[in-house]
Amino acid sequence: MAELTWGLIAKSVEDKTTIDEEIDAKISTHTLDPSAHGQTNEALWAHREQEIIDHIDGSIGLQKWVNTKNIIYTVFESLDLWIEKLRTELSVIGQLEIYTGTTLNNLAYCVADVPVMSTFPLFEKNTFFQTACYINNTASGFAYVGAGEAQATENSEFFGFKFKDNKVYACIRQNIEPNVTEYTTEIVGVAHDSLHIYKVQCDWENQEIRFYIDGVLVYTYTTHLPTDFFDRMFSYYAKNTGSTDLIVISNYLMLQADL
Asked: 3-state DSSP call for residue 146?
């Protein structure tokens, strides 16, 4: 009896494709499948889900930097170009501090203007911001950290975080003339008197704004989304309604938006 080569045998009487040819075709199809190994707990999924991407140290060059975004990053090297400042200082390297003092109804703020030819912080440009913040005590006062103009008396829109009664809120202020309306949703389980990473991502395609604290999605707004122009790019703001010195500290700020 002649020795058979298994890979050269046809699949069936009806299909003369050899087993080797069928295996090659399956491998080729798998190789070209962009979703291959991307399901939960598979290789690509696990790679994407890692807290720190496992590329070799020193292997990423600046030529890999995204080239379709406006990007701003500051560790508060200077406050000279922040357009509005009150009771604001750079307490140490890389640390912005605003403080109300103990006088009733004192304000403190540090506000950045919208740059010329900038797409910050427009919702339709998928604006993203992230900042590290500590707020000491809002039992007798309140604070805002976010994109736009934080002062509620202004007509500019705002999205970010509000801190009041020692609670943290996802916050949107919508300007539909002649009314300016603020919407807040409490985020439970977050102590704002510890340093946290506060992040907001606008998503124009899906018509939502997502709020994150320390990398965890804590709330998503799908209504009351910004509709108007922003007079200011970013604000740190505090107001004292008692005798406690309300302090807001930030270690850095980064913003990103589509061109």
From this structure: strand
* Tokens standing for residue 197: 């990473």
Please report, rounded to a whole number, the percentage of residues in the chain having pLDDT higher than 90.
51
Whether 162 has a pLDDT exceeding 60, the answer reads yes
CB 85 within 8 A of CB 60: no
Selected from 3.40.630.30, 3.40.50.150, 3.20.20.140, 2.60.120.200, the CATH number assigned to the domain covering 66-258 reads: 2.60.120.200
Go through 104-136 and write b for each residue having 16 or more CB atoms within 10 A of its CB, e for each that does not.
eebbbbbbbebeeebbbbbbebbbbbbbbbbbb
Please choose, from the candidates 165, 170, 150, 148, the residue with its C-alpha nearest in 3D space to the C-alpha of residue 216: 170
* Secondary structure element (H or E) that encloses residue 213, with its range: strand 208-213
